[in-house]
Design goal:
mainly alpha; about 95% helix; about 0% strand; transmembrane; membrane
Length: about 50
Amino acid sequence: MKNVSRVIMPLIGVILILGGLYLVLKPKIDAYFIHQDNVKKIEQYENSTNH
């Protein structure tokens, strides 16, 4: 039982840390992709109005 506990506890810790990082960074990641999408839409609009 101790061997199982020695393996599972660090794995749970790593999973919790990764989950926390995901929750902290998710808004920044979403904002980045929204910004990229907006830039792409602006470029498409400018190209369509110039031609």
